[in-house]
Amino acid sequence: MQELKHSAMKKLEIIVQGEQQDFVLDLLDRAAVSGYTVVHNLSGKGSHGAHQGHLMFNEDDVLVMIITVVPEDLAAAILEGLTPFFNKHLGVVFTSDIQVTRLGKFQAPGGAA
Amino acid sequence: MQELKHSAMKKLEIIVQGEQQDFVLDLLDRAAVSGYTVVHNLSGKGSHGAHQGHLMFNEDDVLVMIITVVPEDLAAAILEGLTPFFNKHLGVVFTSDIQVTRLGKFQAPGGAA
Amino acid sequence: MQELKHSAMKKLEIIVQGEQQDFVLDLLDRAAVSGYTVVHNLSGKGSHGAHQGHLMFNEDDVLVMIITVVPEDLAAAILEGLTPFFNKHLGVVFTSDIQVTRLGKFQAPGGAA
After folding, report:
1. What pTM, to 2 d.p., does this model score?
2. ipTM surpassing 0.90, yes or no?
3. Which of C110, A94, C4 is closest to B35 using CA atoms?
4. How far is Cα A67 from Cα B12, in angstroms, rounded to an integer?
5. What is d(CA B12, CA B18) in angstroms, rounded to the nearest whole number?
6. For A90, which of B69, B100, B109 is closest by C-beta distance?
7. Dist. CA C107–CA C100, nearest whole Å
C-alpha cells in the first residue's frame, strides 16, 4: 500500500477563447507540464462587453478553461510564455495555491509533476 | 513589452440552478464586476437529497457555476447582496484567495478589476 | 435576516474518467459529505499521453471533475478512501483552502457541512 503524497503546487486556470485552445495546449506541452484538464463551452463577459450588456455567445467566443498544476518556477515560466499571446488575444489566468494528492500509480490528467 | 502584473484578489464561485443564472449575472453587473465566466450543465446534490440518494438531474435543477474575481471589499458586498436570494433559492458560494495575472492589453472574461 | 456565516474548509476537486463517476459519488455519499457538484465532459491529458501528443477524446476517456467541500479531517478520510481506487484507475485530486458562505436557509449543492 502506498502512502499519500502531498505536494504544494501552483494551479493555473487559463481562460481563453475556444479557438485559441490548441495554442495554449501546445505551449503547455513544450513547457513539459505533466498534464492538464480542459473545461469546455464556458461563456463569459469581460469589461469590453459591460457597456453592451450582452454575453459573448457567438461560436467564436465560446471559452475554455485549461487547468494545469505545476511547480512554482514552471508557473512563472508559463506566465511569461503566455504574455505575447495575451497581447493579441482575450483571456485571463488565475493562479492559486493547491495541494496535489497522487493517490495511485497512474499518471494524472490535469497536472502535477 | 509589458511586465506581468499580479494582484491578490478573491475568487467567488457561485453555484446556483441554471434558471437563476440571469439573476446572479444581473447582480454582478450592478456590482460593476469587470467580468465573469459561466460553467454550464453541472449536476450536483445538496444535503436535501442525501436521504433520497439521487442526483438533481431534471431540467430545472441543472446547475451553473458563475466564477468572478474581485477585490476583497467588493466580494463582501456581493455576498451581502446575494443573501436575500439564497433565502429563497438553492445554492452556495465558495470564496478563495487567488492571484490574477493580467498578461496583455485585453480585458478579461471571468474577472479582475 | 441572517448573518453571513463563513467557514474554513477544504475543497476537493476529484478528476476521474466519466465511467468512474458513480464509484466516487458513492464513496462521497458513504463519507456523509453534505453535497457535491459534478462538471461534465472535460478532456485532458496525463503524462502517459505526453509522448503521443494527443488528447484523450474517445468516449471512455471523457473526464468529470467532482467538487466537494468538507472539513479538514473528512478530507483526509476521503483521500485515504480513494487510494485503492487510484491504484487501479486514472485520476488526480486537487486540495485547496476555501471559505464557504452559507447565505440562506437552503442546503448547498457542492458541499459544506
Report:
1. 0.80
2. no
3. A94
4. 17
5. 17
6. B109
7. 12
Residues of C in contact with A41 (CB under 8 A): 41
DSSP reduced 3-state for C78: helix
CA distance B4 to A87: 11
Cβ atoms of residues C7 and C53 within 8 Å: no
3-class state of residue C39 by DSSP: strand
- Dihedral pair phi/psi, residue C27, rounded to 5°: -65, -40
What is the phi/psi pair of residue A107, to 5°? -75, 155
Write out pLDDT tens, residues C79-105. Answer: 999 988 888 888 889 999 998 776 554
SS3 assignment, position C95: strand
- CA pair distance C47, C27, nearest whole angstrom: 26
C-alpha cell at A81: 510564455
Put simply, whether A89 touches B (Cβ < 8 Å) is: yes
C-alpha cell at C53: 501528443
**Phi and psi, residue A54, nearest 5°:** -130, 155
Interface of C with B in 43-72 (CB under 8 A): 69
